[in-house]
Amino acid sequence: VSPTPRPRPRRVDMSGQASLPFSDLGARLKPEVLKHLFKFYRPGMISMAGGLPMPSCFPVASMDVTMRDGHRLAMVNKALCQDAEGEVHNLYLQYERGDGLADLKAWLEKHMEALHGPLYDEWGCCATVGNTDGNFKILSMLGGYEGKRVICDEHTYSAFLNTARTQGFVTHGVPQDEEGMIPDLLVAKLREC
Q1: Nearest alpha carbon to residue 31 among 98, 76, 91, 127
Q2: How far apart, in whole angstroms, are the C-alpha atoms of residue 61 and residue 30?
């Protein structure tokens, strides 16, 4: 008899909590109203809010990418190439949502679900232009005073360490094994900090 799966815990909504460790900047950040409306945008709609140029005005018609495994991905400006063949994704030359391209986010979330199986149901991804950009944004929201502490892997990305230190964070490395941070050593480091 297989055990009954336990329901996943719900994420904790921490919005509006005065006790959150956000910096002054992080506490002041609110969703931008016009970007929030992008979720209602559908192809063919005219938006007076986003300053969205006509796709046919962009000079790039298409771009092909071939992956190491031979998989070909065609990105096409559909306004200029109506008869594109194969697996085609719209070429993103336009302004988009603030949390990343919708197609990319959907792919990332599917990948994360398959690879890592998040432990709760209400989660999502935020796509940034790169690791340093994402770290900077997160640390800017959490920072705010000299000496704030951040836990990281003992051997971690040097740009993360530099970004954290320039924002006043003190970094504390936790040794890891092939599965990540060693739990007992993480608990010990948390107690120490």
Answers
A1: 98
A2: 36
The pTM assigned to this predicted structure is 0.59
DSSP state of 16: T
Other CB atoms closer than 10 Å to residue 83's CB: what's the count? 5
Report which residue type is found at 148: K
The predicted-structure confidence for 101-152, as pLDDT tens digits, reads as follows 777 778 788 888 888 888 887 888 888 888 888 898 888 888 766 788 899 9
Give 31's contacts (C-beta < 8 A, 6+ positions apart).
98
Among 98, 62, 97, which residue's Cα sits nearest to residue 77? 62
Which residues lie across from 90 on neighbouring strands? Answer: 76
| Number of DSSP helices (H) and strands (E) in the chain, helices first | 6, 7
Q: What are phi and psi of 105, to 5 degrees?
A: -60, -40
Half-sphere exposure of 4 (CA within 13 A, CB side): 2
Quick: pLDDT tens for 7-42: 666 666 666 555 556 677 666 767 666 666 767 777
